[in-house]
Amino acid sequence: MAEQVSNTELEHRNHRLEILLKISRMMNATTNQETLITNIAAEVAEYIQADRCSIFFYDRLTDELYTHLATGLDAGQAIRIPCNVGIAGYVFNSGEVKNVRDVSQEPLFTGEADKKTGYVTENLLTYPLMNKRKKTIGVFQLLNKTSAPGYFTDEDEAFLQDLVDQISDLLDLILRKDELAARNAILEAQMQQLSSLDYLIGDRTTINTLFKYNRKIHYWGGVAAMVLLTLMAVTSLVMVRSDDFRSTMLGLHTGTGFGLGFRYYIFTDTVSIITLSVCITGLMMYVYPPLNRWLKAKKDRILKEKLQEGTRQAGKA
Description:
By secondary structure, the chain is α+β, with helices and mostly antiparallel strands. The chain folds into two domains: 2-179, Beta-Lactamase, CATH 3.30.450.40; 202-316. The chain has helices at residues 2-29, 33-48, 86-94, 112-117, 154-201, 206-241, 246-254, 266-316, and strands at 50-59, 64-70, 80-82, 98-100, 124-130, 136-145. A six-stranded antiparallel beta sheet has the order 3-2-1-6-5-4, with helices on both faces.
């Protein structure tokens, strides 16, 4: 009987080594990291006979744990939880393995992921993921044992330890790739924001072009306004002091001189419009310089904040 038990145990160990060797060959043969980690998770779930396998990574930008991969989820579906909540949060912060045979008896179990996915967790095994610097970068989680004894065993924990030691470098690389992609997305959004500011305050931009035309309008409008105001003063003096030209000047002001009737005041309306345009363009000439300074200060402030954020993130790495 003892010999039979020993043979069974030996077969079990050989099987575990075969799986680890198979995973090692997969790592050497597959260059696509996403495909590789998916295949590894499938092999682990099949070997341990877990219904689901999830890998949570730590997102330093949001201080959350997120599923880089979770078997059983729909395409594009992801789970995000605070890094200090639930069993995954506990394992991430403590670095301890958590093997829960019945989640209904576990105070740390919140069921947040089940609520989001509709899945029902009965038992689970959560293992911390560490890089070579012994820094926790996430957790490996197996859900619902599908074979006897109906919960995860010490042997399952031992297998996960060997597995994590083997693939820790790969997981760290994938995490850094995710972080780089997230930072590139943020940087791209920031660059678009800065580009919009550059467009506003650059030398060949809409605002500067309008400002140049505004100056021309102000200048030539001022010239036209001076001429017309001079004519208005002349016509007013003539109307007051000359009986011979009074009707002519009055016709010019009221529009009757152009055959348009008393409803049109061509001369006075023209003077009023040009004078108003001179006033508006003059106001814009006062508004533009402080606006331009404010936009430049905003751009400098954004750049400074992003540089400080980059420095803080580099310090955490």
